[in-house]
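Possible regression after last week's pipeline update?

I re-ran a chain I had predicted before the update to compare outputs. Posting the input and the new output here so someone can diff against the archived version. Not blocking, just want to make sure nothing changed silently.
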Amino acid sequence: MPRYDGWLILDGHDRAVAALAEGRTPQCVVLTRLRDEELWRRDAERMTEEHRQHRERLAAHPASPGTERQRAAMEQGYGDAPAELPYDPSGISTWPLPGGAPAWDALARAAVFQFPRD
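New output (post-update):
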C-alpha cells in the first residue's frame, strides 16, 4: 500500500498561495503523533506549573519597569518553551480510516464537490 509522502494543506490554501506569491514562507502547523505522548504531556504540565509559580512570585513584587521587563521576558520564554519539547514523530504517519479505500474515495468526492476550486 503506498504511503503519502509530502505535505497536505488542510486549511488556508489562499493564505499559503498569497504568502508564496509575496515571496514569503507560509506559516504552518505540523500535526504528528508523538513517540511518547505521556512523557511529552508530563513535561508540558511541569512547565505549566513552573510558569504559574513564576507568575505568582513576580506578582508579589512591587510594580516597576524592572518587574514588567521580567514579566514580559518570562511570558515570551514560556510562550516559546513548548517548541523545545521533543516532537520526534512516531513513524506512524496515518491512522487507519474505517472503511478503507472506499471510505476515503467517498470523502474525497464529497470534498471536491464541496470545494471545487481546491
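Follow-up from reviewer: compared with the archived run. The mean pLDDT is 77. Marking as no regression found.
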